[in-house]
Amino acid sequence: IVVDYGGANVAKPLHIGHLRPAIIGESLKRLYKYLGYNAIGDVHLGDWGLQMGLIIAELSERQPELPYFDPDFQGEYPKEAPFTVTDLEEIYPTASAKKSDPEFSHKAHQATLELQQGRRGYRALWQHIMNVSVADLRKNYDNLDVHFEKWLGESDADPYIPAMVEDMKARGIAVQSQGAWVIPVAQEGDKKEIPPCILVKSDGSSIYATTDLATLVQRMQDWNPDKVLYVTDKRQNLHFEQVFRAARKAGIVPPTTELEHVGFGTMNGKDGKPFKTRGGGVLRLETLISDMTDFVRAKVVENRIVGEDQVEDTTSKIAMAALKYGDLSNQPTKDYNFDMERFAAFEGNTGPYILYTIVRIKSILSRYGAWENLPIQEPANDFAKDLMLSVTKLGPTLEQALKTSSPNLVCAYIYELAGCVNKFYHETRILSEEDEKLKAGYIALIGLAKNILETCICILGFSAPEKM
Questions:
Q1: Taking the model in full, what pTM does it have?
Q2: Whole-angstrom distance between the N-terminal and C-terminal Cα of the chain?
Q3: What does R_g of the chain's alpha carbons equal in angstroms?
Q4: How far is residue 257's CA from residue 288's CA, in Å, rounded to a whole number?
Q5: What angle do CA 344, 384, 359 make, to 5 degrees?
Q6: Under 8 Å CB-to-CB from 35, ≥6 apart: which residues?
Q7: pLDDT (tens digit, 9 = 90+) per residue, 208-221?
Q8: Considering Cα of 120, then 125, then 128, then 134, what sign does the dihedral take?
Q9: Where would I find the beta strands (DSSP E) of 145-282?
């Protein structure tokens, strides 16, 4: 199974729009792995498009003396990049704002074309951009506990494009239309119009669809997957419908390989409007994580939940649970409102509530002693029975979550299970039970519930602290 998620563009910082593809994709990949599939996560970087030409054009105006812009330069290019990641974060928006200037726009498009055609200086600059950006992206994804098996990008698909395009032209799969080459993908019975998939534009350049098709060529050659999942904004539904149909028509993927687009909705502010900074800009992802961490830290310190030496570890785990569960508990396709206070609450349908339940069970188990091999007894009361019935739903829940690509089903399940644990705890004397056999059965049952909760939060991408 190949899970294509993340989709970050190099030379730009991750912003809140990158949260959903990262954590939904990571949880689906972990779910596939847990259920025994060989799942490969590929970040599929945006590293080959116009943004590269924009940066190169802007740099050529700022530092025209750099050797990368001298077509006659034959020596070795510098090993050190002529910019930092902070510089890039200023250079790119500045260049992007100049796209409306016809002269600059032409220069950027020309730089993109020359980069893709292999101009030596531009390739060297591109490598600097990649090295600086990817190091920063890795750090930010690591902070989110999101890890990719493959760090491939659009540039890795580029070598497959020429042969693929020629083959499609030769076989009549691609046809000419107004100077461009397109693949007609409309089918009988379509309820809405599905326009042709553009393969090559009239100016000879390729677009996202071309790259996505070439990426499928590469994936089939390298891994021959049984399924490829794409986790992107649901507004790209039509794009993937066209790409999937084109891939089938051209025989890039066999009928046995499943192609699925997991389209997600928008994360809005508390007021239901698109999430913005106070200045009206797009919030950086690391700022969102930092704000959630600060908010949780204040609660941890105020309530003296742990000793000073454990504050940071406990805080980061609760903050990550609040952030991820707050997002993943929503159906992926639905828009949702981000509410820090609600997501970080220790009660209700929240990540911290799930963690609190796990920590409570751990505390009981540590006071009891060795419990791992104890047998579970028949239910002594209705609360034990409810908890047992909830435990049995793990398998069907995970299978259904995988079948429908819905991590929210895992969230709903562990919220129900945690509720059963807490009702059982409140209504049953566990450690003070005098019948040792009965007590051992209780301990075995809550120990099993703890293991299930920990398994599920690991699939969702977070973990529990020792104390709360």
A1: 0.94
A2: 37
A3: 26
A4: 38
A5: 30
A6: 398, 399, 402
A7: 999 999 999 999 99
A8: negative
A9: 175-177, 180-183, 197-200, 227-233, 258-264, 267-268
